[in-house]
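Suppose a classmate hands you a notebook page containing two proteins, each written out with its sequence and a corresponding row of structure tokens. How would you begin to make sense of it? This section walks through that situation. The first entry is reproduced here exactly as it would appear on such a page.
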Amino acid sequence: MTAVHSFPGRSGGEVMRRLLAPLAHYYSDAATVEIRMNRPHQVITERRGIGKQAHEDARLNRAAIERIARSLGNASGTAFDGEEHVKLSTVLPGGHRFECLVGASVQSGLSLAIRCKHPFSPTWEQWGATPFVRDYLTAAVARDANLIVSGATNTGKTTLLNMLLATLPDDRRVVAVEDTPELQIGRFWDGNGLLAAREANTATGMVGWRELYDHLMRITPDHILFGEISTQNAFAALAALNSGVTGFMCTIHAESPEQVIHRKFTQNVAWAGAVMPDIPEYLTDLVDVVVQIKRTPTGFRHITDIWEVREGRYVFKDGREVSGC
């Protein structure tokens, strides 16, 4: 599971730093958005303003990556041995998300991605947002609209959601429900963050999404924030929406606002094995706004679409304000 943990003490921390150094050489750059390895010795970096670049690195063979993953697994209490346990999802020092799979399920023997979480506070202009977009979204948050931020992998969905959260008064009762803490809720002095176990039957002292949902419904939130919607939490998110809450916000992987409503939630719920009829109709009745983000070839992210779900209309489409809205 993705764990929130402290890394070893001073001597152990130094060992971990030395072990991570070949990878840190790439991900420590504040402009780096993600690094990937699709085979031993080759590192792909993606940086803002530069885009993708490939680097050959003799230090990073499969054995080196497996040593790193075993040490990270030990630090986070997650099994990884490169033989029976071949997949690891965890968090590096600095909050960077580490995802690794080795062995027969990968043709090259190795698949690695590190999603970087360097502090980055883009301006509305850097989002490609006109004054209309800025004013529309801040007004939607202020009126407690139920809002979903949509985009492909690593398009800045959480960054935008945090930017919208920053417009709320700090006395709001904001409760975030995530499996990895990424939403910036520390300034909400009556807020709280709940963390779900990503794997069942783990001896971590953490509870699952069902238990967190039950708790959430009993602690009187003003705003319910889900992180990224997945097969594990989609049903809980739908249940939260059905509770009559306003000010619900989440992110989801989708290529368009219509896909969010008509396909992605249904797909995630179905993959989780839950049965719930008429999910698109249900979402159309409960979600106010979907905001779409897309990534440029140079690594920057732009808001491209805003869809008013209940009204069935775009107010911003393909980077342009829709006339008459």
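The notebook's second entry, a different protein, reads as follows.
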Amino acid sequence: MSDAILCRFEAARSIVRDAADLAMSMRPPSGGPTAKLKSAQDWLTEADGAVEALISARIDTLFPEDGFQGEEEGRTRTGRLRWVVDPIDGTSNYARGRNRWCVSLGLLDGDQPVAGIIQAPALGETYTAVRGHGAFLNGRPIRASAVTDTRSAMVEMGWSSRVPDGVFAEKAATILRLGAMPRSSGSGALALADVACGRLDGYLEIVINLWDVAAALVLLEEAGARVSPFLRDGGLEGGITLLAAAPGIAADLAVALEVPLD
């Protein structure tokens, strides 16, 4: 990996740390959601905009030639190297004062993920990865689960109002028929990070966007997980399906759920 990428990664670690501190300082108290409702279960807090603005401004100062894309403002700058941020992934949790949310920042070189940082400050966890340099949780190397039987697997499935109820129910039923234990915890980025470190054996989201996965894609690759071809199949342009899984059950999940693998 080039010195330019490694330099950006080190700078991004500091930027994400400051962004996470800002998000913590703005976190609503526990209770009913303190946020605006964009659509069913799709929340927007004041922190979403503030955190994205902080990251965008810092990157623009340090690397003005780089592209930038955020969940809230869209693609505001173009460049071969493109930063993609989800300022608060798991906003439904964040808006209620819960702990399972994160700041997610990924770096793409063209259409290839090359670095990613996912920081969950309320959990005290930071995931990091640079292509070719391994994947880490709080500085310790991580690997995907060694599970080989879906009957002993734990699989999470993300929910979206953009998915018809019947489709969601069908996929959930398929996971249950495989004997896997289902989960749903409200943060796509952290679910993917859990697959990378073996806390989950699989994660399916029928419609998910680039900002949700940009940081996690390199983390998953470096941790040895298998992932559906999200970027190749249209993830750069809009929301599509993503499956990430431990290598020992990835093929079984992909066939049952009718999702192609890499």
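A careful reader of the second entry would note: The helical segments are 3-25, 46-62, 91-94, 165-177, 188-197, 210-223, 231-235, 250-257.
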